[in-house]
Amino acid sequence: MNQQQNFSQVKITNLRDIGGYRTSAGQLKTGIFFRSGELYNLSKEATDFLSHELAIKKIFDFRRPTEIENRPDSKIAQATYENISLLSTPAQANPSLKNMVINPHMENYMFKVYAELVLSKSAQQGLHNFLLEALSLHKPLLFHCFAGKDRTGLAAAFLLKIAGVADDDIFDDYLKTNQARQKANQEILNYFANKLSPEKLKELEISLSVKAEYLKHAFDQITENFGNFDNYLVNGLNLPADYQAKFQATYLE
Question: pTM of this prediction?
């Protein structure tokens, strides 16, 4: 049984290795960059899998402090932990929060979220810190938020873009979330079925999925404000000019 099949057995929603994609300069190494949804209340089987099978040495949690307080990560042996909160604005639909608020115009809100993730100073500083550590760590790491779809999806897209992965593959990886979260999303919708109006349930369903248009909007914002992705890395995220070259030299094979 291969590792990817084991992922589904340990019941960590949206867990996957983003390595293996080919680029013009080689293939992104596997066994280094893992993405997932929250790591709350994990079974011993799941924590052992992360610690022993994947050998995770660093966990980056992109959630807000209030999200972490409500649903803290399970402890993973041998792994250090860092919270990098990528969104400063209050959540508008997040079942991990005790007092959930649902934006009545969720679709529009999602576009604003992706703009904030690339343009806000707090997100840029957080991405700066994450990407610098991702380059220097040289050991398996896992990054996540609540659902592992927006904050995590953008971070994964950036890592793949930096590695030189084709845009089609980047978007395919991003959209895998909808399949990976199908069961978890249905459980959330079932839980709120008698607690929310049909209108709010519909907005909640929108908030639990990803659309290619959201990620495209993020990249469009980068182009409009910085000219291209390379400029964004240097002028937006304040990364060294040779960051991408060093990343590819380290993680392509």
Answer: 0.91
DSSP code for 78:
T
Question: Rounded to whole angstroms, how far apart are CA atoms 126 and 142?
Answer: 15
- pLDDT tens for each residue of the chain, 253 residues long: 335 556 777 889 899 999 999 999 999 999 999 999 999 999 999 999 999 999 999 999 999 998 899 899 999 999 999 999 998 876 655 544 444 556 677 888 889 999 999 999 999 999 999 999 999 999 999 999 988 999 999 999 999 999 999 999 999 999 999 988 888 888 888 888 888 888 888 888 878 889 999 999 999 999 999 999 999 999 999 999 999 999 999 999 9
Instruction: Identify the three-state secondary structure at position 60.
Output: strand
The gap from C-alpha 161 to its chain's centroid, in whole angstroms, comes to 14
CB atoms within 10 A of CB 160: 23
- What six digits make up the tokens of 54? 């994947």
Alpha-carbon distance of 182 to 184, in angstroms, equals: 6
What is the residue type of 190?
N
Candidates 3.60.20.10, 3.40.47.10, 3.90.190.10, 3.20.20.70; CATH matching 3-87+104-251: 3.90.190.10
205 touches 93 (CB < 8 A): no
